[in-house]
């Protein structure tokens, strides 16, 4: 993967985490599932453009015909829209975390229904196992130059994020770490559990003090990974997960 460079309006956007080659025989279904997960996690935000068809098809290892069938379903459901012309492409119409906790009784009722379907202790335990393992494996690997740059860019984006975008970009950083662990199975499992975690996070307020602490942990984590300190990365991630778990238990238990 290449590092950052100047991009014109018609150029491909940044690498979207969460996409991996599909299995033979279920290309349409798995591609649809993966792109829906990318939308649900906010890895491509509302109003932003998905990667070009050629790039998506290569990442998923499906034909352009199959990809267009997937995008047609998403368009029919109102989740994306296609625009023609020089600056055209497929643009996201789905807002991740679509229920606003302060949007009124209806929104709060929907959040309560989401939470009731989740085993909080199980989700948090599984998340910690995956995250700690991913951090350790990332640090133990010899990351390529492009991979190191990708991790730095994902971390920098969280530091520059406005409050309303923080959780989406935080998700991107954590999923990038999972993907750079070198285990596609781990990354896929993490993407799934992170969607559940985000449903829970949508139900609690964003606390600036907590975000500042979280960013300090992110910085220590990225440093440990880039320095090849597997034990350090493991411990920082364990503390990071414990902090999130404590907040969620405090608000939701």
Automatic annotation (TrEMBL):
Cross-referenced CDD domains: WHTH_GntR
* The keyword Transcription appears for this protein: yes
Keyword annotations of the record: DNA-binding, Transcription, Transcription regulation
- Report the SUPFAM superfamilies cross-referenced here: GntR ligand-binding domain-like, Winged helix' DNA-binding domain
All copies of the HTH gntR-type domain together span: 25-95
Which superkingdom heads the taxonomic lineage of this protein's source?
Answer: Bacteria
Q: Which residues form the signal peptide?
A: none
Q: Name one GO molecular function term.
A: DNA binding
Name the InterPro entries on file. Answer: GntR_C, TF_FadR/GntR_C, Tscrpt_reg_HTH_GntR, WH-like_DNA-bd_sf, WH_DNA-bd_sf
> Has the keyword Metal-binding been applied to this entry?
no
* Official protein name in the record: GntR family transcriptional regulator
The organism is Streptantibioticus cattleyicolor (strain ATCC 35852 / DSM 46488 / JCM 4925 / NBRC 14057 / NRRL 8057)
Which classification does the entry list for the species?
Answer: Bacteria, Bacillati, Actinomycetota, Actinomycetes, Kitasatosporales
């Amino acid at each position: 993967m290449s590092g950052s460079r100047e991009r014109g309006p018609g150029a491909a956007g940044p690498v979207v985490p969460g996409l991996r080659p599909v299995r033979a025989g279920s290309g349409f279904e798995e591609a649809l599932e993966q792109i829906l997960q990318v939308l649900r996690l906010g890895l491509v935000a509302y109003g932003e453009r998905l990667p070009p068809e050629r790039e998506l098809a290569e990442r998923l290892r499906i034909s352009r015909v199959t990809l267009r069938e997937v995008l047609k379903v998403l368009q029919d459901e109102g989740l994306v829209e296609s625009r023609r012309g020089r600056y055209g492409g497929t643009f996201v119409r789905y807002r991740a975390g679509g229920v606003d906790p302060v949007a009124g009784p209806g929104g709060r009722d929907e959040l309560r229904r989401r939470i009731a379907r989740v085993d909080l202790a199980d989700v948090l335990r599984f998340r910690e196992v995956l995250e700690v393992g991913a951090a350790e494996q990332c640090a133990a690997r010899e990351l390529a130059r492009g991979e190191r740059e990708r991790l730095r860019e994902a971390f920098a984006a969280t530091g520059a994020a406005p409050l309303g975008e923080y959780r989406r970009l935080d998700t991107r950083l954590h999923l990038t770490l999972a993907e750079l662990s070198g285990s596609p199975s781990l990354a896929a499992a993490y993407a799934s559990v992170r969607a559940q975690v985000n449903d829970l996070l949508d139900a609690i307020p964003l606390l600036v003090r907590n975000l500042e602490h979280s960013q300090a942990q992110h910085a220590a984590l990225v440093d440990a990974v880039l320095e090849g300190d597997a034990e350090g990365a493991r411990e920082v991630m364990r503390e990071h997960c414990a902090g999130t778990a404590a907040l969620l238990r405090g608000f939701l238990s």
